[in-house]
Amino acid sequence: MSAVIGHEHDHDHAHGHGYQPGGIMRWVKTTNHKDIGTMYLWFSFVMFLTGGVMAMVIRAELFMPGMQVVEPERFNQMITLHGLIMVFGAIMPAFVGFANWLIPMQIGAPDMAFPRMNNWSFWLLPPAAILLIVSLFVPGGAPGVGWTLYAPLSVQQGMGMDLTIFAIHILGMSSIMGSINIITTVLNLRAPGMTLMKMPLFVWTWLITAYLLIAVMPVLAGAVTMTLTDRHFGTHFFNAAGGGDPVLFQHIFWFFGHPEVYIIAIPAFGVVSQVIPAFSRKPLFGYTSMVYAVASIAILSFLVWAHHMYTTGLPVTGQLYYMYATMLIAVPTGVKVFNWVATMWKGSLSFETPMLFALGFLFLFTLGGFSGLVLSIVPVDIQLHDTYYVVAHFHYVMVAGALFSAFAGIYFWLPKWTGHMYDETLGKWHFWLSMIFFNMIFFVQHFLGLAGMPRRIPDYAPQFTDFNMISSIGAFGFGLTQLLFLYVVIKCIRSTEMAPQKPWEGADSLEWTHLPTPAPYHTFETPPTVK
Amino acid sequence: MIKTLLQKIGVRGVTMSLMLMPGLLWAQDRAKWNLQEPQTAVAREMYDLHTIVLVICLIIFVGVFGAMFYSVIKHRKSVGHKAAHFHENTTVEILWTVIPFFILIGMAWPATKSVLAMRDTSSPDMTIKITGYQWKWGYEYLKGEGDLSGVADGVQLYSVLATPHDQIYGNAPKGEHYLLEVDNPLVVPAGKKVRLLITANDVLHAWYLPAFGVKQDAVPGFIRDAWFKAEKTGTYRGQCAELCGKEHGFMPIVVEVVEPAKFAEWAGKHKTAATSAAASAGAGATATAGTPDGKGTYEKVCSVCHAAGVAGAPKLGDKAAWAPRIATGADSLHNSALKGKNAMPPKGGMVNLPDADVVAAVDYMVKAAK
Question: Domain containing A322 — which CATH number?
């Protein structure tokens, strides 16, 4: 697909390229896509651990019936911040980190199109994260409303809610700037011969994701701004007594929220579409249909938002329309899964850590897809909505989907980024422990939901005890396993053993075929020619 | 026959695919693994629909991952398999786009029929208005159409968690219906179509009774409808399903289904109790006419916290707790109640409550503590 001719080797310009401050100022002022990518990835890992600690508090409280660890209001704050931090602080920045590192290298560009804006989009994130965390310590604490921030409960909250609203505005600005940067880079900085349909699938998925972000982040900003004015400036958008409607908030939120699911999932599809062919030693099956499938999922994602709202009292016709439209998403999603399996079919497979995580993704994400199909059926959803079944479903998509594919990507590109190989044995341990503990946490939650345990409750009836115990034990195991991951990454960075230019036999995109390992600070100052 | 078979395969199939689960749990209690046993025709349709979809998913799952694991085992490099080079096949691509489409239509058809049945609230035998409060449920039997019009008209009750605080905080052993018990359950007749008009007073709640297949959000300022026709007498339990603040996990729903004759008897008792209470207080009738009703407001709203001293709220009649507060003056107390203080939200969370009622309730509580 991306055979390269006229290979002109890039020289290492790292230190011969104008002024570069040392120490901390290197990171504060950097406009280099690799530095910024690295900062995004570390930031997201710190947030991942922070949100993880909150998950541990939640699971500790739910280990047994009765209130033991936190008060109910603190519990609600934990579920809110866990959701917001994991979605906006951990998963989204992780994939933006991948985008920064890889898009210029995979399309043969010297850097992102707007390097200074790139710097700013990153440096907006830490203040937003600080606002979210500080909200825990203000009077009234963080909002106890769930990450969905439903009105009118959000209108009742203390000033923690205002801090959260401000944080969301900042995060939204960061995402929009990042997306403008990605779209401009992909559309304008491709090397000669790198036509759109020759781009690696990872680049395609980010191009589509960036459009989704630009379309929906302003919608979320609108929703939280309306909440803000309802709280402080006497408007009644969500108050029936003033002519408003609480359900309006949900419509606006989920018009953002459903595409958001795909903002998280689509770059994950991209990573997996690079990893599976590399370890199958066979080109991706159905490249064109993959591009079309991702595009159709993105378009459909705008048309199904009210399937999160079947129980709000939609008209019958509304319920039927959203059910049919939602079920339709199974078609392009199925195409993707079939393509990945067909890529492996009659390949020459090997199972290094990136491939294990990619297969873990494929297996568990598909399970999450099936539970999504179950939830799309209105009468079944009436039973399962707002129960632990939904919690299980979206963690299969978010954790086993997005997080596992991020792990696959990190193990896959670590040699290129650091110049060293990671410890394969420890990597495999990380995979298998994550796999086992993940299923311990979330598989049993399907049964809790079926049996009628509502989500977002700090205490539960005794018949739910044993599954909750299994789930909590799994959660503690999963949390500890991620410290192993941190160790593997640090060990890899500090290792002295150099990795070859192309450690993966089947990898074929420009960063492997064309650049030395580790990738020099500046790459492709002279664009390669792609045939 | 086929349905029962399907149900069996469905339930078993899930467990078999569950290599991680200790089989012990399964033997111990079957009901934990699936939807609750349906008690209405609608809930039964939901149950069957879930089973059908689950079975279809399992078949596809086995097909897709059978192929994947076959490939994982047979096409590995370590057994010397050489990679083929195909990467396109239009026929296959069209097939696996079109076939799933038809499978989906197969699922959508029964689902549509059951949505239509589920939403048909016409010609009920009686109507009950349900109001969600932070944090309890209010039930009111309305005057309406159907067989049972008149039997329970005007009966009103509030349904609050009955599990003692000590059980929740581990100072007493947990009872059999821990967190799923209330002081006044909703009582309904068996075999009658009951229409529910659901709303809320403050924030969103959701009235969720799994065995009846009912889950409907309660939206403040709007009325939504749902219905059920319980087949058997008995006690059925559910919970609020929409996060509504700190006591969200502590506002259960209990419905007692009784024979229609017994229901009439129960309703008769409640009606006389309600009218005599109204007559003796004399305030019941006037309250609706506009005079602020301190005691009534206290009982409806404030008592949720101030009766038991939840979150540091001074208890009704607790002189020691009230004395320093009373010393700050009536205006300051009224303001605290209207604007909120410490854990207490403005107006105790009942934003729609008239100011006069809040003030009257404060005065009532102050009087009780003097």
Answer: 1.20.210.10
